[in-house]
Amino acid sequence: MIGTVPTDADVVTEAHRLMERATSASLAVRVLGGAAVLMRSEGISSPALTREVKDIDLITSSGERFTVAEMLAASGYEPDKEFNAFQGRRRLLFFDRPRDRQLDVFVGDFSMCHVIPLGPRLVLDPATLPLAELALTKLQIVKLNAKDRTDLYRLFLAHDVGDGDGELINGARIAELCSRDWGLERTVTMTVDRLREGLAASGLTGAERSVIGGRLDRLSERIASHGKTQRWRLRARIGDRMRWYEDPDEP
What we know:
It is a single chain. The protein is α/β, with parallel strands linked by helices. It has helices at residues 11-24, 33-39, 65-73, 81-87, 131-139, 146-158, 171-180, 182-198, 206-225, 230-238; strands spanning 29-32, 56-60, 78-79, 91-96, 101-107, 110-111, 115-116, 161-162, 169-170. The protein has a 5-stranded mixed sheet. 37% of the residues are buried.
């Protein structure tokens, strides 16, 4: 990590470059967001699932945020010093000014509408979050937008739902996390229902809709059939009478 090196214009190539530098420095940092979805679905060519991804999102452990910041500075990224000084325990912000690219680094467990714990699973896959957690970063969004919906369709078209990791979306892992947290299950189930309902107007082919729909159904079945914790059951009694999620748009 000596000296600043030029960045790459292609977001996937650039994300891979950063992960190669992180690996050489033995850093626990992985890609998430739209760039990670593209990295895990490079064989998908459906016109309905094409969208521009310009920025890069990373996530690292709390103990490595300073070393990751040094790596990014040496990789061509300018830190937002004021933001990082105030928010660095949870998030770091960098810019690739020549390419008008923003790079966000989430620190610790992923936290937006809900908290997605990572722990040792952060480094389970070599470049991105595991597919289960990558999907959950989108499934946990209460106010799902068109880009997030496209990313989820793309992931579920590229990968089947199963009970393991690697090239499977680990439905058992998602169901386990939902079984501990009624609010997370409420949002994930709501998002899956919206995805299923939106398939008809998605622009996807009949075959693509069938594949995605079947995989969403398998995920729903795993979540519904998984045993629930006492904490889940207590929160379920309150239901929607109390807000079950955080609003990341609130100050």
